[in-house]
Input
Amino acid sequence: MSIPWLADDEWFDWYRLTPVERWNETEKLWSFYLASGGSLDPEPDSQSPFDSQFPRRPSIVDGGAGVCSVRRR
Output
């Protein structure tokens, strides 16, 4: 069985590495990325509930619209 994307020598070499060797190569890539001006800061995401650029909507704590309490005995 032939896997087309493993035909590339670079991928083949990567999968022949042990997990420790892959980890070391990944560390080298991160070092290069940071040294060349890369950043680990997250990009803004306006749809994220954790986005600090937009004020949070007030929560409904008094049982307002959309809250229905049902008690059964």
Notes: The radius of gyration is 25 Å.
